Amino acid sequence: MRVQFxxxxxxxxxxxxxxxxxxxxxxxxxxIADRIIGTDExxxxxxxxxxxxxxxADFFELPATSPPPPGAADYQSYTISATTPSHSxxxxxxxxxxxxxxxxxxxxxxxxxxxxxxxxLASRRRDTS
Length: 129
Known about the structure:
Blueprint: E1 2-9, E2 17-22, E3 27-32, E4 35-41, H1 44-56, E5 76-83, E6 88-94, H2 100-128
Antiparallel strand pairs: 1-2, 1-5, 2-3, 3-4, 5-6
């Protein structure tokens, strides 16, 4: 399965984060806007966890869009696309995400992006020391 996760908006306007996970190839790629920052290998356990979260959220059964709440000027928006051999589907979400299983999926993807950014920053600090 290939999952693409994009964020936009929130407290930092114009910050578009990208995450692309391919559980079959076991790769993860992160980026900001149109710039790729890095690619790593995805451990089997992490691939399994992502697939569990996707199933738990009934991803392929979610509505394609969730309307933003009234006055949602500074809310974070998310686009999640998933492709399997038998499905291809995209969901657009806006904070606050009320479904706890969908929120868990989004939190997991956000956390994975942050974890990889932190690793990149730590690596750069070591290289400049």
